[in-house]
Amino acid sequence: MLVLTRRLKEGVVIQDNIVVTVLAIEGEKVKLGITAPRAITVLRLELCEAVREQNLAAARLAPEATGAQSLQSVRQLLKEGGKEKHD
Questions:
Q1: Whole-angstrom Cα distance, residue 31 to residue 12?
Q2: Alpha helices, DSSP H, located in the chain
Q3: Full-prediction pTM beyond 0.70?
């Protein structure tokens, strides 16, 4: 894990096309802004983990489902509501 210190309005660039900027610092919370191409999915970690857990539970309940079907289910969940708003 890379650990960086950034001040208000400072940011980092990831692969030339993703910019993460510190927008506000309020007590123990830091508000980040993420600028990324629309083709890149940006998810909160807890949402990604919840989708993963639901997928594992569904796989346990329906062992006859193929890996491709499970992958398609995750893609559909992400498409329906998992995307975060970004530029």
A1: 14
A2: 45-61, 67-77
A3: no
